Amino acid sequence: MKKETPKDSIEIFEKAIKRSRKKKYILRLYIAGTSAKSTHAIDNLKKICEEHLKGRYDLEVIDIYQQPTLAEGEQIIAAPTLVKELPPPLRKFIGDLADTEKLLVGLDLRPKADER
Description:
By secondary structure, the protein is of the alpha+beta class. The chain has one domain: Glutaredoxin (3-Layer(aba) Sandwich), CATH 3.40.30.10. Helices cover about 40% and strands about 20% of the residues. It has four helices and four strands, in the order αβαβαββα. Strands 2-1-3-4 form a four-stranded mixed β-sheet. Strand 1, helix 2 and strand 2 form a beta-alpha-beta unit. The longest helix has 17 residues. It starts with 5 loop residues before the first helix and ends in a 10-residue tail after the last helix.
């Protein structure tokens, strides 16, 4: 069995980073009309997506007033709610998404503070 060298470890790590950067994100943002919270959530999410996921995400904004059956199917109980469909695991975030750091950690775009 071949012994792994530090150079091999670095190459493995770099390949893993490249794979993670290629992941496509599928996001759904459930909002309630044109409320201030809904508007803030859209603005905050678009900013985060453009800064950290440029070209690697699909975002669908769903107004629960116009499409209530979609919200029922996803068991949305509050708005705004962001659902990260892909990559796994599925995650939900409630609120105006103003806490950028918390959202980046939740989307697996940044490690938790205690994992750094």
